[in-house]
Specification:
By secondary structure, this protein is an alpha/beta fold. Helices cover 32% and strands 21% of the residues. The chain starts with 10 loop residues before the first strand and ends with a strand.
Length: 414
């Protein structure tokens, strides 16, 4: 039984705006997930050369002028696009919304590397003469940039900031939105995560040096979480932002409600720079379940974090088996197999891809799962084909990141 709170403390999702390598709206994204269509393609990156990546194809000029795109950042453009789409999806009377009551909370893995790399590459051609360094560099690289670009574009005068939480950041943005609404710091929260990661060669080069960059002759099959033949991470860009509101206010305006944030948790491994610690991951899951007053068997779908690395998938599988030791009705899937790892946007996108299951009661699959690694065996893992369920009332999303940051968000049906 889920925890019961006063209606003004119940936080619900009323709008979703996203861009992913296989879709620029929730309906398109969901359709491709159910059809098994991914978005990983061949990609060229500076110095490293040919690789694969999850690349978005949204229209940057749909909500921005060319001058704004040139002056700003890719992460900012992703954020602006997703925010506009979420606001429209929520059916808000935006011109009459008090913009001082809107908060913007955006999760990011990193920000500024792209712009710094580009400026250094540029002045290298001028013998490192810094007079050619862009005067836009500072506003482009400050950590609050993606949230700030949304604020400027939409005229939002409430608080805006980003949350650096590695690959747990998409969940962290949502959690922050929930907390600020409950505290009364805002009346609407624009929150989630964005990533421009494919535009920095350093991320590819670092994963490559680590032996954790995915390779495959068929780009569509490169991202292979839990598979015996996985070779590493496929880097992806993307974004997903939500409109969160208090339940009583959303109901009063007759809003469409996707679901309620019924539980969440964040903790730290305090163990290693990059190697996950399953005991702490399991603790984070249990903490979220406890706050939601749910038993593990009351979770219908678990959206896993698994990135396709040799150790990460094994460690998460151990955590999952600790919480769900026996096969029950809980189904497990993975979205990164379709689009790669969208870093700061990953958790937010993965929740979105599963939200329609409240209506259609279908768990999308993990694709490219031809031979499950015995160390990654998890009861109820959905491989290659979607699976129907008798009910979908609760969805749990795992997102874990470097330096041992863990996050879990649980969404419930209204």
């Amino acid at each position: 039984m889920v925890a019961q709170r006063p209606d003004q403390q119940r936080i619900v999702i009323t709008g979703v705006g996203l861009t992913a390598p296989n879709g620029d709206s929730l309906p398109e994204f969901r359709e491709n997930l159910l059809a098994g269509r991914g978005g990983v393609v061949p990609y060229e990156t500076r110095y490293l050369g040919s690789t694969v990546a999850g690349v978005c194809n949204f229209d940057e000029l749909r909500h921005q002028r060319r001058k704004e795109v040139r002056r700003g950042t890719r992460a900012g453009s992703i954020g602006v696009y997703c925010a506009h789409e979420a606001i429209a999806d929520a059916g808000l009377d935006w011109p009459n919304v008090d913009k001082s009551t809107v908060g913007i909370y955006i999760g990011v893995t990193e920000h500024g590397n792209v712009e710094t790399e580009n400026e250094i590459f540029l002045i290298k051609g001028y013998d490192y003469d810094t007079q050619y360094w862009s005067h836009h560099h500072n506003p482009r690289t400050v950590a609050n940039n993606p949230a700030g670009e949304i604020s400027l574009n939409l005229g939002i005068t409430g608080p805006h900031y980003t949350l650096g939480a590695a690959c747990a950041a998409g969940n962290a943005g949502i959690i922050q939105g929930v907390q600020m609404l409950r505290l009364g710091e805002c009346d609407l929260a624009v929150c989630g995560g964005v990533s421009e990661s494919i535009h920095t060669f350093g991320i590819f080069a670092s994963f490559n040096s680590q032996g954790a960059l995915a390779r495959h002759e068929d780009p569509a099959k490169a991202s292979r979480p839990f598979d015996r033949d996985r070779t590493g991470i496929v880097v992806a860009e993307g974004g997903c932002l939500y409109i969160l509101e208090r339940f009583d206010e959303a109901r009063a305006r007759g809003a469409k409600i996707y679901g309620e944030i019924v539980g969440y948790a964040m903790n730290s491994d305090a163990h290693d720079f990059v190697v996950p610690y399953p005991e702490r991951q399991a603790e984070c899951i249990r903490l979220a379940l406890g706050r939601a007053e749910l038993n593990p068997d009351e979770i219908d779908i678990v959206s896993t974090h698994a990135t396709g690395t040799a150790t990460g998938d094994v460690q998460e599988s151990r955590a999952l088996r600790e919480v769900w030791p026996e096969r029950g009705n809980t189904l497990f899937n993975n979205t990164k197999s379709f689009i790669g790892h969208a870093m700061g946007a990953a958790g937010a996108l993965e929740i979105a891809g599963n939200l329609p299951a409240f209506s259609d009661r279908v768990c999308h699959a993990t694709i490219n799962l031809d031979h499950v690694d015995p160390e990654c065996e998890v009861p109820g893992l959905v491989a290659n084909q979607p699976r129907s369920s008798d009910k979908v009332n609760h969805i749990l999303n795992n997102s874990f990141g470097m330096l041992g940051i863990n996050s879990v968000v649980i969404v419930g049906i209204i």
